[in-house]
Amino acid sequence: MQTAWRRAASAVALLVGLVALLGASAPIASAQTLPPQEPGVTQRIFQLAAQPQEICPIKPASTPNVDVLKPNVNWSTNADFGGLSDNFLVHVIANINVPTAGSYTFRLNSDDGSELLIDNKLVVDHDGLHGASDKDGAVDLTAGVHSLRINYIEAGGDNILKLSWRKPGDSAFEIVPNSVLTTDSGVIRVTAPGNKQCEGQNDSPGDGLPLDSVNPAYNLVSLRPAGFEPKVTGLEWMGDDLLVLTWGDEDGSPSTMTALGEVWKLSGVKTATNPSAITRVKLAENLKEPMGIKVVDGEIYVSEKNRLVKLTSPNAQGLFTARQQIATWPFDDNFHEFAFGLLYKDGYFYANLSVSINLGGATTNPQGSVDRGTQIKINKDTGAVEHIAGGLRTPHGIGWGPNDSIWTTDNQGAWLPANKLIHVQPGKFYGHYTTGPDGKPGRFDNQKPAPAAVLIPQNEIGNSPSQPMLIPSGTFAGQFWVPDVTYGGIQRAFVEKVGGEYQGAYFRMTQGLESGITHIALQDDGSIIVGGLHGGGNWGQNGKLSYGLQKLVPNGTTTFDMQKMELVDGGFKITYTKPVSDATLTDLKTKYQVKSWGYAPTSNYGGPKIGEKTLTVSDATVSADKKEVTLKIAGLEPNKVVYVRSPRPFAAADGTDLLSTEAWYTLNTLPGYVAPPSDGFFELEDGTFAGGAKVDTEHAGFTGNGFVSGIQTKGTSSVKIEANMAKAGDYRMALHYANGPNPFQGPKKLTLIVNGTSKTITLPSTGTWKTWGYFLDTVTLNAGVNTVELLYGANDDGNVNLDNIRFAPAGTTRYEAEAGTLAGGANAQTEHAGYSGLGYVGGYQNAGASATVKVNALADGAADLTIGYANGPNPFTGNKRLSAYVNGVFQKKVTFTDSGSWKTYKTITDKLTLKAGVNDVMFKYDTGDEGNINLDYVDVKQNEPIQCGTVSANDDFEGAALDKCRWTTVLNEDTSGYSLSGGKLNIKALSGDITGGTVSAKNVILQPAPTNGSWAITSKVSIDGSKEYTQAGLVAYAGNNAWAKVVVMRRPNGVWTTELGRQSGYANVDLPTGAQKAITLQMYARDGQLRGRFSLNDGQSWTEIGDGFDTSGLGSPSVGLAAYNGTGSETATFESFTVGAPPELPPVPPCETLYTPESGYSMLLDGSDAMLADKWKYSGPGKFVREGCTFKSVGGFGLMYTKSPYKAPYSLKLDWMMPGDDNSGVFVGFPDKGADTVNTSINDGEEIQIDPTDNPAQTTGAIYLKQQADFAARDAALKPAGQWNSYELVVRADRITVFLNGVKINDWVDPDKALGNGHIGLQMHGAGDDVYFRNVRVKNLEESVSEDTTIGGSVPATLGLQIDAPSTTWTFTPNVDKTYEATTTARVTSTAGDAKLTVSPEEAFLTNGSYSLSEPLQVGFSKTAWTGPVSLDPVTVTFKQHIGATQPLRTGAYRKTLTFTLSTTNP
Question: Where does the record place the CBM6 domain (predicted)?
């Protein structure tokens, strides 16, 4: 069965970048209108910021954190919930196929609250916070398909959700099986990180929620005449007529492009009050997914996916039948590569090119084409294309702004944590990094990203903004209308120039339209034409139509709205469209809520909010006309979004409620703001690049969002940062870098430039690219901003990866206690002379007194302290203690010896463990202390990062601390969660997992694996506990979705098992009681396989775990140890860790008797490994393993397919067997698309299904989703699970006939006739779907008739072939090198659907008795194939014979009889 995309006439391709989700009351399709289905349920999980108390509706258009297909609802571990543990909301969406009518009782078992809805009616209400418990509900159901929905919250403790049923006549409950559950297939599942929000109790449309109706200032008019359903991708006026451009993508597959776009001319739009007054004429068709249209000098131009064309050659009906190509641009057939536009001015067009992305939304890396994600300028006359600016992702909208400036919108995704409205300026880079097909960064990527004028927070106020339109007049003149496809409606953007650049605010404007909006057009009377679409899945507004064309007509109403929001000194001035009421003005400052946050761009889809905080409105003043309110707001910072909300009631003087109470202002520049000095730490990926330097995330172990690679161009590659330091002086610099083996192994030089002063530095080798080290140096920095650059200079070696750089004061730094933060009665004093600085800290008379200083450390580790103090005689003479805390965590009691008097100052030395960066070091009079000292200063000697030499990979865990030179990466480190003692590594099994798309397990301890792809890692493990799914063992890690594990794990039934797992599947072997307390685990990689085994006798004998997995996707991983998914009370111990050569693969006895084909057939799988390797290849993570003479599917979802294509007609025979309820299929008629064939075969070929318990069009014998089998014939012939069945598939260009065990069960006609030539494939459906194949063979069924003649002949009437005599008879001349030529004419008559002309033998030699020429006769045709009937169609046949000068020639005639054959596969 297929779990990816499918070509279907009724489906729609999806633009990934955004997602539309079912809301709490969203309609679910009825059985009569179900889209294509696949078995299972959709699980969507939304992480919440706080503990939910009850099931809540998620805010509309929110993108989930997890969106996956699950087989059923039987979940009880963090892994079952995408690795999340607490505070989340789950939506389960499915359809249930009820076998018989009757009363069904459903049971929800959940911890915490849950509810079940069938056909949108509540059946089980099990809401609230509670432990795992059951709740039942009964409902009468008819036989057939019903919609099913579960809502569930997890607030803490266990996370459990299970759905069971008791069918009519049953005595017990059972988990609702996969066989009756389906969900929409072909859905691109897009996720985004960060917390999501439920609708609040005080939220209402326009006040915490999107508007839900048309703006009161407008009336809505439909512009769609009957039968007109345009998916609008462009609107343009042509005089008084409206041109409507439509998308035309109707095949539902992102891996294919369609050419079905159209241009329509609508007349009567400007005056229409209903669609009956509008007439339409089609102007163009067969356009390739067009996204822009423009009329210039009466001619129509359209931007297709790969080119700009002008429509030409209109026929009598007005249809333009030809295209003049104006320009082309880089294009690689990716479904997301659009050309959004168009604008035109002064001889130039402007458009935006979106980037290539993968299914799921991740940016394709590398891109298939150069210069994607750029804005282009096209010369109308020459077609020359200029790339204006870059760093765009999905720049859907383009429009004019003030003073003919160009503005564009971009949609959230990789490197875009929010949507954007951008003022595009030539040469600028707007933040979305790409890597070209040559491995080089995008042409604009080598500079600091320019900010968006307006950030549009995802799901809060936008999701897929489209065409910005400058408002020409009226209350909002100079602002923009910005429609949105997925959030829907139209929003409004106010912009102002601050510091020479635009920034501004975003407001709601209208909803209530029939579709999500892609384009708008303005009418002279102020009306707004709105056109839209719903592309399915994640590109369209939920619950709306897939097409739309309407008009918003002004009706003279003035709404009460925020007209604009301007930055003023100390805050903002909000101007309203009406005077504010006196009631609202009372206690005005309390009527506003303000927050601010920044964003952290990452290579993942979307990005988290950072630094979110609530701000205080200290004052609010109103203007005399009561239309302007000025807010004084403390704590504003640049490069933040400032969110202002004035919840209702908030009314105008005339009683009108505020239309929308919220505004989002993008505060890029804040005049007068003085940035605080940095803590000395700088992520280099946030710097400015040159010469090919780029952001990368390939190698684990970096900090922040990535590292800088591409330092490969001598003289130009560099990264530059600005370091704002509080004080001038000498600083120690720690540069975190990796220096791997390319282009050579060894030290490499770079140039370090600090404030214009250069020096050469040498970075020692780190051995591999996944091993990170520190380079230390001392630099002199100024107070304020310093420029620091790392350059691949003319005499350098370059070719290193650079992660971060940290500066901390060199040597010993004094921190005066009186300058710190004092609390609990501690205070600065000067009574007793002899102190350092401006005084000392006294007041340590009462418990709770404290002094805190901020200490900047260069690295993690112990630092030497010298503390100046006085300890006089009060209240007693003797030693006294204070407690030392670092970053709020107690470290030790510090003893201060007697100094004799308060005027005598002494010092003590000690050590504290600091973290790299700024540390809060506090000395506190705590419980058990004596206090009563005067604290003068703290001197801190700068610690430095560990410098690593060459270390062994093996570890016996002797010592007191983990060797960070060996273990270079600790994922999600919690230093309290692991330790070394007694020669063992101890790791607490804390909550978290490595599954679910994000590794949440704590303390996954890793080192680089050998780079040759052949290795074994081994460790002896011990763990125990009662928490189900607690795990401990070996891990290989190459990224969040690229990992493998060999672990011991506790099952829910209490049995401990071993598990070999990858993200694509798993295999288990259960253990004897207590074996998990002393078990040796081994993971090994060799020959492209990843395998696991265990030993219970210290390696004397081994047991394999499953059949292994393909290593694809792991690359050169990091490997190591982990314990996770526990409660924290379980501790795994590891006695040692070794890295070595892998063992030999387990032997598989050879097939004793190979299969042999019957007459006419050729073997494809005869039971031998040799034939498997010779004739087949793989796409996807799964594989087939041989067991005797049969081959078993194992691993993840993939396809094994023939290296050679096969031309129809042919007969394919094979045997298959399923041990149980398993799943697979046979694919035919698809092209080889390399690594992506596993997906493209689903779209471009056909699958003959193997699965006896699925839906009719998805079960054994079905042509998947096309035609079900003859059930009666199929069921009579089908042998049960565990027994072998045989397929014969007769494949013709337009037909597949299926025979099961000799019985015809299906005969499907392909209307596309697309099966003529393609590969044959056997599917691996995933872990647990174990299907066996054997004895695969194929036979060509080509039909033909022929007759021999001496260059001539005849055939029966249905296939006629006439051949004239050659035009000349050759006379060969000895000793002369010459090629002799002759021609004749053949005439073809055929009544067949296709025909082919061939000649045999392929190599023909002219003979004269026993003498033969040494070179063959060459025969050529002017035409060899026909696709329809022909009569006496002439074909020129050319004969050539080369005679060399040394060719011996015998007197007489040389002749050869040739056979010309006219054949057909479709008589």
Answer: 680-808, 813-941
Confidence (pLDDT) at 201: 67
- What's the number of CA atoms in the CB half-sphere (13 Å) around residue 589? 14
Q: What is the pLDDT of residues 1135-1148, one digit of tens each?
A: 999 999 999 988 88
Shared domain for 843 and 746, answered yes or no, is no
Where do runs of H (alpha helix) occur along 557-599? 582-585
Going along 129-278, which residue ranges are E strands? 133-141, 144-154, 160-166, 174-175, 181-184, 204-205, 208-209, 218-222, 232-238, 241-246, 261-267
Structural domain contains residue 87: yes
Token digits of residue 575: 């101007």
Return mean pLDDT, the chain. 90
β-pairing, 339-345 vs 121-126, is unpaired
- For residues 1330 and 1347, state if they share a domain: no
Does 299 share its domain with 434?
A: yes
Whether 301 and 343 map to the same domain: the answer is yes
Domain count, the chain: 8
Whether 775 and 883 share a structural domain:
no
Quick one: 892 and 906 in the same domain? Answer: yes
Pair (688, 834) in one structural domain? no
Answer yes or no: are the C-beta atoms of 881 and 929 closer than 8 Å: yes
pLDDT-derived band at 1354, boundaries 50, 70, 90: very low
- Give the per-residue pLDDT at 12: 24
- How much is the pLDDT for 536? 64
pTM of the model: 0.65
Among the candidates 642, 667, 692, a domain finishes at 667
User: CA 1338 to CA 1175: how far, in whole Å?
Assistant: 12
Is position 26 within any domain? no
Final residue in a domain of this structure, among 809, 837, 864: 809
State the burial class of residue 1452 (Cβ atoms within 10 Å of its Cβ: 0-12, 13-18, 19+): exposed
Indicate which CATH number applies to the domain containing 630: 2.60.40.1220
Let me know: does 539 contact 207? Beta carbons within 8 Å.
no
Sort strands 501-510 and 662-667 into parallel, antiparallel or unpaired.
Answer: antiparallel
CB atoms within 10 A of CB 1366: 18
- pLDDT value at 844 more than 90: yes
- pLDDT at position 1011, please? 78
Q: What is the CATH number of the domain that holds 1276?
A: 2.60.120.560
1005: in domain: no
Residue 957 is assigned to a structural domain of this protein: no
Taking alpha carbons only, the member of 148, 153, 43, 73 closest to residue 104 is 148
Say if CB 272 and CB 289 are below 8 A apart: no
In terms of residues, how long is the chain?
1467
pLDDT, tens digit (0-9, with 9 covering 90-100), for 904-914: 999 999 999 89
CA atoms of 1047 and 922, how far apart (whole Å): 42
Same domain membership, residue 1299 and residue 1363: no
For tokens 């990527």, name the residue. Answer: 445
Burial class of residue 1448 (count of CB atoms within 10 Å of its CB; 0-12, 13-18, 19+): exposed
19: pLDDT confidence band, cut at 50, 70 and 90? very low
- Rounded Cα distance between 897 and 908, Å, is 8
User: Which residue, among 90, 106, 9, has the nearest Cα to 52 in the 3D structure?
Assistant: 90
Q: Assign 3-class secondary structure to 1238-1258.
A: HHHHHHHCEEEEECCCCCHHH
* CATH code for the domain in which residue 1105 is found: 2.60.120.200
HSE at residue 328, side-chain half, CA atoms within 13 A, is 9
Q: What is the CATH number of the domain that holds 128?
A: 2.60.120.1560
Q: Specify whether the CB–CB gap between 841 and 817 falls below 8 A.
A: yes
| Domain range enclosing 1064 | 971-990+1017-1030+1046-1136
Mean pLDDT computed over 748-765: 96
1440-1461 pLDDT, tens digit per residue, is: 999 998 999 998 889 888 888 8
Q: 67 vs 11, 64, 72, 151, 991, CA distance in Å?
A: 20, 6, 14, 14, 21
The token duo for 1350 is 């001496």
